[in-house]
Amino acid sequence: MSALHRVTQWNAFTRIWHMFDAKWQNPFHSAPLITKYLKGTYKPFYHPMSDCGDMVVVINSKEIALPGDEWRKRVYFHHTGYPGGASWTLAWELHNKDPTMILRKAVYSSMRGNLQRRHTMQRLLIYPDEKIPVEILENVTNQIRGSRKAPRTLISYGDESETFPRIAKFPEDYVLR
Known about the structure:
Blueprint: H1 3-13, E1 17-21, H2 27-39, E2 55-59, H3 70-73, E3 75-79, E4 86-90, H4 91-97, H5 101-110, H6 117-120, E5 124-126, H7 134-137, E6 140-144
GO biological process, one term: translation
Family: Belongs to the universal ribosomal protein uL13 family.
GO molecular function: mRNA binding; structural constituent of ribosome
């Protein structure tokens, strides 16, 4: 094998570090996207028996967005393995305990049928905010775009909001609470 072919093969099988911003993203829509990079299915030489997946760093998992009443109605199951060790936790309670767990469970369940998913999940690094260790941030070379755009806040519009049509005219002594 020539040196050029060897370098080409090394470049093909190196692990690329990707970053994903989970702010305002639905974890159940983001999970298949993250899984694609963890397993390496986007690569042209992907094969289920080869381990060619990449590293994925997820930031802002504290600010994920669940649709509708999912925060109050979605329940997560956990069993300790001992008799009577079954427990069900609501999504908002689980998110308050560990802000990375909902996204971790969504990615884990989206890898259904993958026999190596426990090994593959070790390449997923999830942080609740934007504070990432410097040695990890140095390795990141690619960004994964989210499935939805983050909405703008009303304050970010500035003077542009004056051009919006008014629905109602409030009196001067009206106080917003």
